[in-house]
Design goal:
Mean pLDDT: 93
Low-confidence stretches: 1-33
Helix content: 10-25%
Strand content: 25-35%
Radius of gyration: 27 Å
Number of strands: 37
Length: 601
């Protein structure tokens, strides 16, 4: 998969634009090429002022080099991509995450330098001849530090030996590159910060010492308001319903002006939203750009007792995308409660768009998940998400839903208010009211779900009046309305969105096995393709004068916030199987312009 170009404000891997070219990566810091002036002690520097380069003259990267706040502190990446595309995806689940650029002790090509943080030890020409230079990271395990063992030899980059380097390196200065070996997975184990100390000893005594502090980038997910760059859907072999779904989705993408064609995932598992989640890591690049590694999380769905291959097989797609500036991550707890496993599908992980409330800013938004004390996703995966620290979670109760995903009831939509967005929600009361109005107008015999089937033997056809008389549907819908109210109460308090700003999508629910599921296609469960285009499931509602009034409801509701509706046929492939358009699609979105390090968190 190709990364975006510089038009999104990111740097996808061009050495010159990142402020590091081949010469930069291999030159010694001796000052002969306009480099740093000699010092009279140990002086190590990193990009502490976050301008995309190490400043060798002056104090811009010297002051505050051991601090971290909204304007100071160097950044590095977990170097988990595969720059030379050497990783094999045809291995056991337990081995899939073991291959990436930080899994070995070599620099994986020139572009690999871009994924590491550059450090420079300035030359100390008068350093003692017997000096030994040690480079130590605290903690040491999360990182690796490279130096150029043979001057002017571009393939001689190796890890700094624990016994240190001889005085000649200190005299002429030395360039170092630090790579992160992993993301933060548990802040109790590692908080993401590393201090690199460079010390010189002579005659058994320390004669110089300096240090810098760095932080690894968190992994962040995309909110709906970011432009969709890539859209994914599963291609089920020989399935005409899959062909129809992808055709309608492609038509909607074209109307939305997307440049790239729909990316197909060839698998029988049609739930494209659920088995991977997209995100990114970033660090300062040159010219105000971010250098980015795109990330795909694999879902923590444990579907087998085979400890070598326990995970949902379709999730391997995340690792199949691994390559230059593309990483994949998995985390799971073997033996987690299978009753709750559906919560590990990524329809249950969405991102609230950025906002500010009561003096607190959330410039990268917040994660939004279904999780309560007795019904929750995989604890190890949840801990990893929480440990990223940039998108504080908002949790709601989805235990009443048979699938248990937040995307069944809630979506986020752009609108012209001060915040820039609002919440869309499924509304059972609205749907009932629309049907009651039809019946009161003498149209109780109008068909609903005409020509549709719940399965090959059970027709879905009914009428407005029969639907209103269906005790199961009406009771389930009333319960669903109360449950959505409870979700919204949490969201409104957490975000400051007002009830009168909500966008309502008509829906009815039914009960299966004591849990709720959409009886009527859940039009809120759609995909935002642009800030003016939303792809929703075709509702198959009551047709009056040739117009489906439930399509009109979606169109009018979205038009009120400046969005065009596009309908995608999903009844047989998704709706009858307990899902909708959002469940069957996925997106890679543009990198936000907000810089995570400017939060100071």
């Amino acid at each position: 998969a190709a990364d975006s170009d510089a038009s999104d404000g990111t740097d996808a891997g061009d050495g010159a634009s990142a402020g590091v070219d081949a010469a930069d990566a291999t030159d010694s810091a001796d000052g002969s090429d306009g480099g740093p002036l000699p010092t009279n002690t140990v002086d190590v520097r990193a990009d502490s002022n976050r301008d995309g380069k190490v400043d060798l003259v002056g104090a811009t990267d010297e002051e505050f080099e051991t601090e971290w706040d909204a304007v100071h502190g160097a950044v590095f990446l977990a170097n988990l991509d595969d720059d030379q595309k050497t990783c094999d995806s045809d291995v056991d689940d337990v081995d899939l995450p073991k291959c990436h650029d930080a899994a070995d002790e070599v620099v994986n090509g020139e572009s690999d330098f871009l994924d590491m943080a550059r450090l420079e030890v300035l030359p100390w020409a008068t350093a003692p001849d017997d000096a030994v230079v040690t480079v130590t990271a605290f903690p040491a395990e999360p990182v690796r530090i490279f130096y150029q063992a043979a001057e002017n030899n571009p393939i001689s980059w190796v890890p700094v030996p624990s016994e240190g380097l001889p005085a000649e390196f200190l005299k002429r200065g030395v360039v170092l590159y630090l790579e992160g070996k992993d993301i933060v997975r548990d802040t109790e184990v590692w908080d993401g910060f590393v201090t690199v100390e460079v010390a010189a000893t002579s005659g058994g005594e320390t004669v110089g010492q300096d240090s810098v502090r760095l932080r690894v980038s968190p992994v962040m997910t995309y909110h709906h308001l970011l432009p969709a760059e890539l859209v994914y859907a599963t291609e089920r072999p020989g399935d005409p319903w899959s062909v129809e779904f992808r055709g309608d989705l492609s038509t909607a993408m074209e109307a939305a002006g997307l440049k790239e064609d729909l990316i197909t995932v060839k698998d029988w598992d049609s739930w494209t939203q659920d088995f991977f989640e997209t995100g990114y890591m970033s660090m300062p690049g040159s010219d105000g750009k971010q250098h980015v590694i795109r990330v795909m999380y694999r879902s923590a769905n444990v579907e087998s007792n085979d400890k070598k291959n326990p995970l949902r097989s379709a999730g391997r797609f995340a690792f199949e995308q691994r390559g230059p500036d593309y990483a994949a991550i998995q985390q799971y707890e073997f033996g987690h409660d299978p009753y709750m496993d559906s919560l590990n599908s990524f329809g249950n992980t969405e991102t609230i768009p950025p906002y500010s409330l009561d003096g607190t800013d959330y410039p990268l938004g917040r994660l939004f998940r279904g999780s309560i004390k007795y019904f929750y996703p995989d604890p190890a995966f949840s801990l990893m998400l929480e440990s990223q620290g940039m998108q504080p979670q908002v949790y709601v109760d989805t235990s009443w839903l048979i699938v248990g995903h937040v995307d069944e009831t809630i979506t986020f939509l752009p609108t012209a208010n001060e915040r820039g967005w609002t919440i869309g929600c499924g509304d059972s009361r609205l749907s009932k009211k629309m049907l009651e109005d039809l019946e009161a107008d003498g149209k109780g015999n109008v068909a609903m779900f005409k020509g549709q089937y719940w399965d090959s033997n059970k027709k879905a056809d009914t009428t407005v009046s029969k639907l209103l008389a269906d005790e199961d549907v009406m009771t389930s819908s009333a319960k669903a309305a109360a449950a959505v109210d409870a979700q919204l109460a949490i969201l409104l308090e957490a975000t400051g969105v007002r009830a009168d700003e909500l966008v309502h999508f008509a829906i009815l629910h039914e009960e299966q096995g004591g849990y709720s599921i959409a009886h009527q296609p859940g039009t809120a469960n759609g995909i935002l393709l642009s800030d003016t285009d939303f792809a929703a499931p075709t509702p198959h509602g009551a047709v009056i004068n040739g117009v489906d009034i439930f399509e009109t409801q979606v169109e009018d509701t979205l038009a009120a916030v400046g969005i065009d509706a596009h309908f995608v046929e999903d009844w047989d492939l998704y709706h009858a199987a307990l899902g909708e358009v959002h469940c069957g699609s996925n997106t890679m979105r543009a990198i936000p312009t907000a810089l995570w390090w400017e939060t100071g968190r």
